[in-house]
Amino acid sequence: MLALRPNCECCGKHLPPEADAAICSFECTFCRDCADGVLARRCPNCDGNLVERPIRPPHLVVKYPPSEERIVKPDGCSRS
Fold this sequence. Notes:
The chain is largely without helices or strands.
């Protein structure tokens, strides 16, 4: 089951379960602005592609809550 991380790793923006977010196969999580912009749809951690994060239906968020673990890159993200 996806962790549904609560924030963008690049800019720290809050991403609730219904947010328009992008993830890689390791569940690195980014807001749409960072994913489409500076990252050009490539994960800065594994170089995998970033795809749309699925939405967990609201009635299942109660039973299977999203992760509370916040991961933020101290210096933000950039494509080298």
